[in-house]
Amino acid sequence: MHRIRIGAVAGVLLALAASGAAHAAPAGTGRDGRPAPQGEQHCVVEAVELDAAGDPLVDGTAAEPTCFATEPEVDAFLEGRASAARSVDAALASSTLIGRVYQDAGGGGGSLSFWGANACAGSTFGFPSLPAGWNDAISSGGGLNGCWVTMYTDASYGGSRLNCTPWCGGLSSWNDRVSALVFRPAGQYG
């Protein structure tokens, strides 16, 4: 009888998998190793390099984020891009992580990671507006790989600003009020 139940359950699971009805994303884990909450996303987007006046060096629209179930998947995606860049032409493209922001204090909840063609040594990267779902949704974050981040309460680098040198684990009155970001070389304030 026990074999019949196991066989029946396995048969149902195989049938569902073959039909595509049982497709679900892997459980994933959050930053702290615990299972990620349902619907939590970890996204990555290419940062736009700015000139000395704060204008984008390249005309065009900002890239859309690519999202994953876990933060380690974001890191693997960036490592894959960097490996491909090394094999094609490291001078043309690289995927250096320059900063990350989170929906919850202390680096918790969903995350949005920013990458650039190089670290912030000699480069400044900006987001005059944030990707969909991230405006007024940031509760912690900071710069990485030689970058500090300046957070702004209004789009287009307006309103009040807060410098994270390099990390802001909690934003107090700034919680869920960030509308623009600039990543600068460590030691430079916005």
Largest sheet: 6 strands, mixed
**Radius of gyration computed on alpha carbons:** 20 Å
CATH class call = Mainly Beta
Could you tell me the CATH topology label.
Answer: Gamma-B Crystallin, domain 1
Low-confidence stretches: 1-37
Strand order of the largest sheet: 3-1-5-4-7-10
At CATH level 2, the architecture is: Sandwich
Quick one: how many beta strands?
11
Total discrete domains = 1
Task: Describe the structure concisely.
By secondary structure, the chain is α+β, with helices and mostly antiparallel strands.
What does this protein structure show overall?
This protein is an alpha+beta fold and 190 residues long. The protein has a single domain (36-185), classed as Crystallins (Gamma-B Crystallin, domain 1, Sandwich), CATH 2.60.20.10. Helix content is 19%, strand content 32%. The chain is built from two helices and eleven strands. The protein has helices spanning 2-19, 71-88; strands at residues 42-46, 48-50, 66-68, 96-104, 108-116, 124-127, 140-143, 147-154, 158-164, 167-168, 180-185. The strands form two sheets. A six-stranded mixed sheet has the order 3-1-5-4-7-10, covered by helices on one side. The protein has a five-stranded antiparallel sheet with strand order 2-6-11-8-9, with no helix packed on it. The termini are far apart. The model is unreliable at 1-37 (pLDDT under 50). This is Peptidase inhibitor family I36 protein. It comes from Agromyces sp. G08B096. Keywords: Signal. Pfam families: Inhibitor_I36. Residues 1-24 form the signal peptide.
